[in-house]
What does this fold into?
Amino acid sequence: EFAAGLEWERKDADAGNPVSQYQYGEILIWACDIEKTMKDGLEYLKRSCANGYAKGALELGCLYADTGTDWGDAFYPDVDEAAKWYERGAELGSIHACDRLGEQLYRKAIEASRRINAGASSEEDTALVRRVFEVTKRAADAGCPCPMTRLAFMYADGMGVERDEGRAKECL
It folds into this structure.
């Protein structure tokens, strides 16, 4: 029965259903023979994302960010690729993708903020800090606890926003 259900899931995914594309991609990625199914699983997740399914983008970001798992030759994590997929998930409305993107880029934003404060920054630094603030605030406003703490630090340090101790305390 599982094989028959899996075949129906594949058919529905191939017909363009983004939820089925996501679910079938997940099944393939976590299948027992990872060497054979990882590539196909990633493609189905990418299709789900292309069809507007934010959860597919979030999962791709998590997979690319996961440097702690040995995938063998089937797949290699890549933090820049992870950020790309978290960004896509955020565009599609995933609060969790906003959180992950903010978390991933936060350290880079701290360094960029230091350059800004020292008067040695670029437009890229300013854009990065502003983007990290935006996605962190979006996730914090949705009630995610970790971004609330990150947002408090950003208000306290004036990182991507006017320094505001009162707002920083409100976030905690």
Observations:
- Residues 95-117 form the longest helix (23 residues).
- Residues 22 and 141 are 27 Å apart (CA to CA).
- The two ends are 50 Å apart (CA to CA).
